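1st attempt posting a full record on here, be nice pls
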Amino acid sequence: MIKSIGVLTSGGDSPGMNAATRAVVRTALYEGAKVWGIYNGYRGLLDEEMEEMSSRSVADIIQRGGTILGTARCKRFMTPEGRQQAFENMKKRGIEGLVIIGGDGSMRGASKFSDETGVPIVGLPGTIDNDVWGTDYTIGSDTAANTIIDAINKLRDTASAHSRIAVVEVMGRHCGWLAMLAGIAGGAEFVLIPEKEYNLDKICEGLMKSYEAGRRYSLVVVAEGVGSSVDIGKYIEEKTQMDVRVSVLGHIQRGGSPSVIDRVKASQLGEKAALAVLAGQSNVVFGFDKGKVVAIDLHDAINNKKPLNPEFLRLAELLI
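the predicted structure (as tokens):
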């Protein structure tokens, strides 16, 4: 059984990463193992930004957004030489396995590192986009969705007061999950996502018909991956001759105290990850399928594209 592991967070931060880190640390300590916190993602492995953690190290963090371990991009880790140096730095401290909390890019780096060095690595899907294949849920996605809905509720008030069209851009470069969920829960008239073609002229026609029928305002949710929401807003304004305001929510979606769901599910995943890596398992990602924690092959997770839930698409077509 492995007796010393490291934990790091990588890629974009997401609410619930701290809850997952806390669960990894306390589970490993309960099992009698040492745990090293690695700061600033893969860069910390190269720059030796690591420290042994105690139960107190992760006290009072479950309610905090972001990640106490920090995160950073590291081009050096993308090279075989950089990964070898990271491996040597781990060996100096007796670190035998890793738990990586991050998104698709982080998982790809983990896969290469494990393949080249043989280090047991277990991944946890930490990304607000909810775009990791094989899991219904990723850490931070619930909090991000609620942050968007809170913003939409506020924008709805001012759009109604001024009889405007509100165009709201949310995150989702390749995946429209956040936009689709926000559109359904926020009562949007139209949702634009990367997975589905759209016709702006037809959207404008629909917005004008809605206004002529007596609706005071309209809401259009745009995933960032479909194009510039500013350009889309300008086109709609010119075509409809209506007052349009564009709001780009940006990184506010990443922050904030994690929701109950993100705290509990991240804790469940953190426990499973710690137990798995201590047992010597590797190249596996833990996620959720129909409410149950499941193990997903790491190579499958990074080599397959997660489709949007067809039920959400069907519901959107019905309600939006």
